[in-house]
Amino acid sequence: MARGTAFLGSRYAIMAGAMSWVSERHLVSAISNAGGFGVIACGAMPVELLDKEIAATKALTTKPFGVNLITMHPQLIELIGVCAAHKVSHIVLAGGLPSAPAMEAIKASGAKLMCFAPTAALAKKLVRTGADALVIEGSEAGGHIGPVSTSVLAQEILPVITDVPVFVAGGIGRGNAIAAYLEMGASGVQLGTRFAACSESIAHPAFKKAFIRASAREAVASVQLDPRLPVIPVRALKNAGTEAFTEKQRDVAARIDAGEMDLAAGQLEIEHYWAGALRRAVIDGDVEGGSLMAGQSVGMVTAEVPVADVIAELVTDAEAALARRAA
Ligand SMILES: Cc1cc2nc3c(=O)[nH]c(=O)nc-3n(C[C@H](O)[C@H](O)[C@H](O)COP(=O)(O)O)c2cc1C
């Protein structure tokens, strides 16, 4: 992990991936205080809220942490400005390929820039255009996902990206998996699902209970029934909301076919279906109608425990796995 810890400035190269509504001051500071690397999820936050969240996180930890910004946020440049004013050390750009002005603004702020690389070709391009480190995230992950598994991305990208640290994410639940990716050339890892239900997480007790009860096969990717409808692939726990979404797609497609609705209106209805749904699940505890974004590693979440316990378990397991190999 040496390369990863040197880059992050944390004790362990274990990042807690930003999770909208979950990764706020309490969880982020707890991760960084326990030796991991916490990342604030800016999500759709306006500038003033991000400003407050960074200040509040700084009040809870003296350790380094990062901020995750979504590339299509309409105030992206202003958000980068807030990070710069707080001297945030690491900015992660998520949600699509970053624009050159955004990358340049981050570099000019003095922060280290981390980007998500979905393919080896784009990984090389991101490094060429200024990314200081990459995250590769496979389809086992919770939240918005790409089509390729973590193990395949790791095999394709780790051997060809050697100039910058690469962090592997998606489906990591145990230390022996961390050891395996480090052996393959990763500088560190990023986990989300295993941290979402920790004691320090502000997620609603019902959200945490759903994580504790769920098994891997319940964390499913959203299904697109009709190629005309814009269904973004998201991995979340199956619930009444995911079933109703399938029904909604069927209904909208039928209305379009019958000429009762034009295509643009139908697409908009699908696009807006999940608006506010993650907040409803995380904050309000609506585990039936809300979006319970979770990765396949959710089966390894079996109790509500402090972040420090999860990190200690991961590190002990990883060390034991590496020691076994050395022996
Ligand atoms: C509830 C939830 C919300 C998430 N929100 C975001 C987000 O806002 N931005 C982002 O880049 N990734 C988001 N992710 C992905 C995580 O940052 C992380 O990369 C992922 O959880 C790692 O895979 P794992 O779930 O298998 O551990 C989210 C994941 C979960 C489970």
UniProtKB/TrEMBL annotation:
CDD domains: NPD_like. GO terms for molecular function: dioxygenase activity; nitronate monooxygenase activity. InterPro entries: Aldolase_TIM, NMO. Pfam families: NMO (PF03060). Keywords: Dioxygenase, Flavoprotein, FMN, Oxidoreductase. It comes from the Bacteria. PANTHER family: 2-NITROPROPANE DIOXYGENASE (PTHR32332). This is 2-nitropropane dioxygenase. It comes from Glacieibacterium arshaanense.
